[in-house]
Amino acid sequence: AWLSALQNRPRPGAAKAAGSDEAASDTSSHSVPPPHEGDVSPASEGDVTTEPPWGSEQPGGGQASPESPDDSEDTASRDLLSHLECRLDERIRRWERAFAAAETDCRGLLRFFGLDVPRRQALGRAVSQLIEALAEFLRQLRGAWEDLDRHARAQELRLRTQQRSVQQLRRPLMQRPAQPRPLEEQVQQLQELWPQQQPQQQPQLQPHLQGSPQVQPELPLQPEQSLLIVEQARQEPDYNLDDSGGAATPDIALRQKWRRAGEQTKPGGLLAPVPPLRPPPPPRRRRAGSRCAVQSEGREQL
User: Fold this and answer.
1) According to the UniProt entry, which residue ranges have a biased composition of type Low complexity (predicted)?
2) How far is it, in rounded angstroms, from Cα 127 to Cα 115?
3) Chain segment 92-146, per-residue pLDDT in tens
4) How distant is the alpha carbon of residue 170 from its chain centre?
5) Rounded CA gap, 7 and 1, in Å?
6) Out of 5, 59, 154, 226, which residue is the most buried by the measure of CB atoms under 10 Å away?
7) pTM, 2 dp
8) Tens-place pLDDT, residues 14-55
9) Is residue 85 in a domain?
10) Is residue 169 a contact partner of residue 185, using CB atoms and an 8 Å limit?
């Protein structure tokens, strides 16, 4: 309809074209007769002029008239319309390709999230729901990131405050001049503090023996008693045997000596009579080629 209206519109130069056609018909009816061959015009003496033959003049006054403005305007309109149609077809094809690609992407996105929409009518609704869900997820994710950033800034501010407080406490100590004290004063202060740091040893009963009149706390031994016990333990013969009759290690034998020496002491601090020592057991017989015999012979040789 728009194209037909453009083609059938009134032309403003129609009246001018009609007037020019009438003038051309009038001039063609009053044509000039051909000149005689013998007559030569004074203006053209000495010049050889060639005139077109009779009947070669074009209709409309004998001159070639240029193209009318209406025809040129129609041609420009047709060219513009064809150009617009080509551009429109190109845009339509491009839009169709983009629409097909978007539909493929939407189906792939729905398939990625486990949704399958066979009909195209339900595709738009499913995509809109998915976009709303993704927008909500993005909003929650941004909120979580904002909380993390706020926590990081608060922690950084706390560390800066602690460092600033430490620097403020350290600055007056560094600015204060040093006051060296004499060595005698430091030694005297250490001697005063040393007895206070030593714990006071007091005899204490075990919890299950407290309140029993028959149990008395063990009193610490006097230096003379401890020396006597140590000397008696040294004089005791070492059979290198434990109570069960087997060979004992040096640590176990020494521990047994101290235990026997402690059993001989009563709570009053007096020494009890030493019981007679049991005779040593007979030496064990070893075979001639045994490993123990070889080791004992090697020790004797060394």
Assistant:
1) 13-26, 185-218
2) 10
3) 999 999 988 888 887 787 778 777 777 766 777 787 888 888 889 899 999 999 9
4) 37
5) 10
6) 226
7) 0.24
8) 545 555 555 555 544 444 444 444 444 444 444 444 554 454
9) yes
10) no
Tokens of 118: 């066979």
- Inside any domain, residue 238: yes
Q: What is the DSSP string of 18-64?
A: HHHHHHHHHHHHSPPPPPPSS---GGGTT-----PPTT-SPTTTSS-
* Spatial separation of the C-alpha atoms in residues 250 and 263, rounded to whole Å: 20
Q: Is there a domain that residue 247 lies in?
A: yes
Q: Annotate 185-219 with DSSP letters as a single string.
A: HHHHHHHHHHHHHSPPP-----GGGTT-SS--PPP
Q: Is residue 81 part of a domain?
A: yes
- Encode pLDDT of 62-83 as tens digits: 444 455 667 777 888 888 888 8
Domain count, the chain: 3
Instruction: Let me know whether 124 and 112 are in one domain.
Output: no
> Rounded to an integer, what distance in angstroms lies between the CA atom of residue 282 and that of residue 245?
11
Domain range enclosing 111: 70-116
Q: Helix, strand or coil for residue 101?
A: helix
10 Å Cβ neighbour count for 170? 10
Rounded Cα distance, 239 and 246, in Å:
10
Distance of CA 79 to the CA centre of its chain: 60
* pLDDT given at position 35: 47
d(CA 94, CA 92): 5
